């Protein structure tokens, strides 16, 4: 019975993994592990540097679009999402020579058309709104040729947005119309006043009335004239108030305000992650190579016996 237990214990010990033996194997093949780790690290470093070189950097600028029609008709709605949908805007941005050169170099000649130009610009220009403040717009542009030409792209985009803003023109036209109407009403009021003066001169019944009674007399005896007078005075006051209101909008004409200068943002690459994974994989493969080599060496020794 005891012999059987001893045999079972011996088999159990044989099946157990000897930690010291594993460490001895790793130490014996340490140079294989080191070389494998270095090789994988160098390969991952090359991959990381390549990925880093291909990771784009960006220029950004924030603007604030505070738009209101102020009850005026014909005020354009500034829409940042439709700029690149218009062919003339696409062509205008691509008038920037370095950007045009990048497009020509990237897109095959047989595919060069307005559609591919639009797609090219849509890929390098990103417009986003602040979730907390939808009026705040962030313009993000990938740096292609150089920072100066990329800055020109952002500035041109903002210029196109400003050209959509016609509030100043609408205010100017509205003021011209109100001023013309005011002048006509003023002349009409003067004519009515002259007619009242003629009545004062010709109507002898007015001479016996007190000053406060004279206007009531005219209103009752000449109702049409009094109605015209009331209407024209009402129009006159309305036009004056409208012009005052339009003048107060002068400080609100600049709808698009630049809240930041153009600033540089480095693109986030996965270079560090690639390098870290390469080192870990190199170490893992090195250990696997060490055990594989130990297995082959053991097999050769057993085969020779």
Describe this structure in words.
- The protein has eleven helices and five strands, in the order αααβαααββααααββα.
- The mean pLDDT is 82.
- Strand 2 (125-129) and strand 3 (136-142) form a beta hairpin.
- The chain folds into three domains: 2-53 and 270-304, no CATH class; 57-166 and 254-265, Alpha-Beta Plaits; 169-252.
- By secondary structure, the chain is an alpha+beta fold.
- The protein has helices at 2-15, 19-28, 30-54, 87-93, 97-106, 114-124, 147-164, 167-202, 211-221, 223-248, 271-304, and strands at 58-65, 125-129, 136-142, 256-258, 263-265.
- The radius of gyration is 43 Å and the shape is rod-shaped.
- The longest helix is centred in the middle third of the chain and has 36 residues, at 167-202.
- The protein is 66% helix and 9% strand.
- Strands 1, 2, 3, 4 and 5 form a five-stranded antiparallel sheet that branches.
- The two termini are 34 Å apart.
- Helix 3 (30-54) runs antiparallel to helix 11 (271-304), helix 8 (167-202) packs antiparallel against helix 10 (223-248) and helix 9 packs across helix 10 (223-248).
Helix/strand layout:
Layout: H1 2-15, H2 19-28, H3 30-54, E1 58-65, H4 87-93, H5 97-106, H6 114-124, E2 125-129, E3 136-142, H7 147-164, H8 167-202, H9 211-221, H10 223-248, E4 256-258, E5 263-265, H11 271-304
Antiparallel strand pairs: 1-3, 1-4, 1-5, 2-3
Helix pairs in contact: 3-11, 8-10, 9-10
């Amino acid at each position: 019975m005891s012999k059987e237990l001893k045999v079972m214990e011996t088999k159990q010990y044989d099946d157990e993994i000897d930690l010291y033996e594993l460490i001895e194997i790793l130490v014996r093949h340490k140079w294989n592990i080191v070389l494998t780790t270095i090789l994988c690290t160098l390969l991952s470093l090359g991959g990381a540097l390549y990925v880093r070189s291909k990771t784009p950097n960006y220029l950004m600028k924030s603007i604030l679009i505070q738009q209101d029609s102020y009850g005026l008709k014909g005020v354009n709605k500034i829409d940042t999402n439709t700029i690149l949908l218009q062919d003339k805007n696409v062509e205008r941005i691509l008038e920037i020579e370095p950007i045009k050169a990048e497009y020509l170099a990237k897109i095959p000649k047989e595919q060069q058309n307005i559609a591919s130009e639009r797609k090219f610009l849509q890929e390098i220009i990103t417009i986003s709104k602040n979730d907390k403040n939808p009026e705040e717009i962030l313009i993000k542009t990938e740096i292609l040729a150089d920072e100066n030409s990329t800055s020109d792209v952002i500035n041109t985009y903002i210029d196109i947005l400003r050209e959509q803003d016609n509030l100043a023109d609408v205010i100017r036209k509205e003021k011209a119309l109100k001023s013309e109407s005011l002048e006509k009403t003023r002349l009409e009021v003067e004519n009515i006043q002259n007619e009242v003066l003629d009545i004062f001169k010709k109507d002898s019944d007015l001479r016996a009335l007190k000053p406060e009674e004279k206007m009531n007399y005219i209103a009752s005896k000449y109702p049409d004239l009094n109605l015209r007078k009331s209407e024209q005075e009402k129009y006159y006051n309305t036009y004056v108030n409208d012009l005052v209101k339009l003048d107060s909008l002068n400080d609100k004409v600049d709808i698009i305000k630049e809240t930041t200068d153009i600033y540089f943002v480095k693109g986030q690459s996965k270079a560090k992650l690639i390098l870290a994974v390469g080192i870990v994989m190199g170490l893992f493969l090195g250990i696997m190579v060490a055990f594989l080599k130990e297995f082959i060496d053991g097999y050769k020794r057993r085969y020779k016996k």
